[in-house]
Design brief:
This protein is mainly beta. The chain is 11% helix and 33% strand. A four-stranded antiparallel beta sheet has the order 1-2-3-4. The radius of gyration is 15 Å and the shape is flat.
Length: 70
């Protein structure tokens, strides 16, 4: 499908351009889990179109996030 650029600007930090960004979703048939998202600029943008691929795994597994040393 497609989504308006302004609806995903915060997710991609404004790095994708174009009126409509292409969206592809991969969903597991057996569980309905979201496995991957691909967002890509339209072919008519200046330069080579950019694409983001975000993969998801280990659904419902505990996560520990430690603050980095600063």
């Amino acid at each position: 499908g497609t989504i308006a650029q302004d609806q995903i600007d915060q997710l991609v930090a404004g790095s994708l351009e174009g009126d409509e960004i292409s969206v592809s979703l991969w969903i597991a048939v057996d569980t309905g889990d979201l496995l991957q998202i691909r967002l890509s600029e339209p072919d008519d943008v200046d330069g080579d179109p950019i694409a983001w691929v975000i993969s998801f795994s280990d659904h419902n597994e505990p996560v520990t996030i430690e603050a980095p040393d600063i």
